[in-house]
Amino acid sequence: MASLKLCKAFVHAQIFPNGNHNRRFSSKKNISEGLHLHHGDLLHVRRTENLKNVRNMLCEGRDSLESMVTIDALQRLSIDYHFEEEITSILGSFYNNFKRVHGINGSLYDVSLIFRLLRQHGYDVSPDVFKKFVNQEGSFEPSLRGDLKGMLELYEASHLNIGEDILDKASDFSGENLRDTMQHSEPRISELVSHALKHPIHLSVARHHSKYYLNHNRGDGSRRNKALDELASSDLDIVRSLHQDEMEEVSRWWKDLGLAQELRFARDQPLKWFMWPMAMLSEPRFSRHRIALTKPIALIYIIDDIFDVFGSLDELILFTEAIHRWDITTIDSLPRYMKMCYMALYNITNEFAYFIFKEHGWNPINSLRRAWGELFDAFLMEARWFASEHIPKAEEYLANAILSAGLHMVYIHIFFLLGEGITEESVDYLESHPTITSSPATILRLWDDLGNAKDEYQEGFDGSYLECYLKENPKYSLEKGRKHVKRMISDAWKSLNRECFSSPKPFSRRFSQSSLNGARMVRMMYDYDGDHRLLDLEEQLNSLFH
């Protein structure tokens, strides 16, 4: 494969090697371990000094709104992982004050920012804090429309909705006002508002937009902003170099595996697949884990292609039975291409299980076998529907698609990679497909339905909730069906928020973040433009090399 020192043409080929593809995807180390010191001693010395400056500033202003503004900036710049203890302490202090005075004082911006940060970090904060901005008719005061800063922050806060009517109103009110502002403002303001509308903080992977925030929100020369800018710049250089090293290793592994040469009909997009782990396990310390996670993700894509594009129904039945047996001595009945895929899956899964056992002392092989079996069963169900030209009921289709989307399989791997809170009870709960894995899968499946690109290799039924829904409701127009799907996506986000932000929490904060980031990646992976291009994904891949 061409060197990863990388031209735009190579990046584009990695996303669309054979045209457009609109398919589903179907012990704690020291943080410096992931940051290779060979990137330059001077860079690390400067970074260490900036770390100390920002830490001191957080401590100095811990009880002021300025500290919350700094925390917000740290998160937007994706450097908050350096200051976990300080951020937890400051937010805890603000929450205790919130409970003591029964609310949040300040402007619309102040209240929205504090509400968002506290809820993001799992504190129980009622959206009733916004009632003072609502009139007797239950609507937000029209006089707030001129407060652009407050409108932007209210819009951001509204996305942390767990099913609350006032946050629905906040989203409608701020969104409508911002869209109007964008149309009647100078270019700089219009661009700022446009970016906020297209990429709300809660619905976006922070690291994918940290460069934008750094470039478009430069400080005013103050000590705080200068330290943040310098820290973010040096951190961005180090992390970019780390990701380039990881991608080179992933590319070597994929080439050596040989599946791309054997399965010519399947996708050959290792860099695109690597984008999922880069988002879902974003902290630099998880370098080895990102590489390990890319391997089962690659297999999900390849197996999806075998079921959707190439395998006959009889072969797919044999393939699924072989996976359930999990016995490498019984695969003689499979065709050669399936044998190679089976061997790769068998070996990679066992290697992964050994890796987890060494890291955390837990053998996940039974959980992984069951998860692969479930995924194959879901793929096979869709293959049977396609072979018989049967279009199932919408809910029947979606229940199966939550599995065939592949995200649950990925989250099983992430859970064991993180190694936080592994018990028989937590494993059983995870295997029951809780909201924290099923909601992102629902979002993925439904976003895929809304995509503009069509699969060039398939004809007929290739899996669409929208198609099933419209068949059940023949009087509905396509536009009405799409609106219904968008409402379902919104509801899935609310369910996911509820699972991640409400108490008690069955999973660790890092696992919750990986779940959220998986859902956030969906739009980047499936939001095709009119030319069947994934512009956001292309931009993110290109940013890794410039």
Number of beta-strand segments = 0
Q: Main sheet, how many strands, which sense, barrel? A: none
SSE-based structural type: mainly alpha
What's the overall geometry? globular
- Number of H/I helices: 24
Percentage of residues in strands: under 5%
Entry keywords:
single chain, 546 residues, mainly alpha, Glycosyltransferase, Farnesyl Diphosphate Synthase, 2 domains, 24 helices, disordered N terminus
Q: Can you characterise this structure?
A:
Its cofactor is Mg(2+). One of its GO terms (biological process) is diterpenoid biosynthetic process. InterPro entries: Isoprenoid_synthase_dom_sf, Terpene_cyclase-like_1_C, Terpene_cyclase_plant_C1, Terpene_synth_N, Terpene_synth_N_sf, Terpene_synthase-like, Terpene_synthase_metal-bd, Terpenoid_cyclase/PrenylTrfase. One of its GO terms (molecular function) is terpene synthase activity. Pfam families: Terpene_synth, Terpene_synth_C. With 546 residues, this protein is mainly alpha-helical. It has two domains: 40-232, Terpene synthase, N-terminal domain (Glycosyltransferase, Alpha/alpha barrel), CATH 1.50.10.130; 258-543, Orthogonal Bundle (Farnesyl Diphosphate Synthase), CATH 1.10.600. It has helices at residues 8-15, 41-60, 65-76, 84-101, 108-120, 148-158, 165-183, 187-198, 206-216, 223-257, 259-262, 270-280, 287-310, 313-325, 336-360, 365-388, 394-404, 407-418, 424-431, 435-450, 465-472, 478-501, 509-526, 535-543. Helix 7 (165-183) runs antiparallel to helix 8 and helix 10 (223-257) crosses helix 12. The longest helix has 35 residues, at 223-257. The model is unreliable at 1-11, 18-39 and 453-461 (pLDDT under 50).
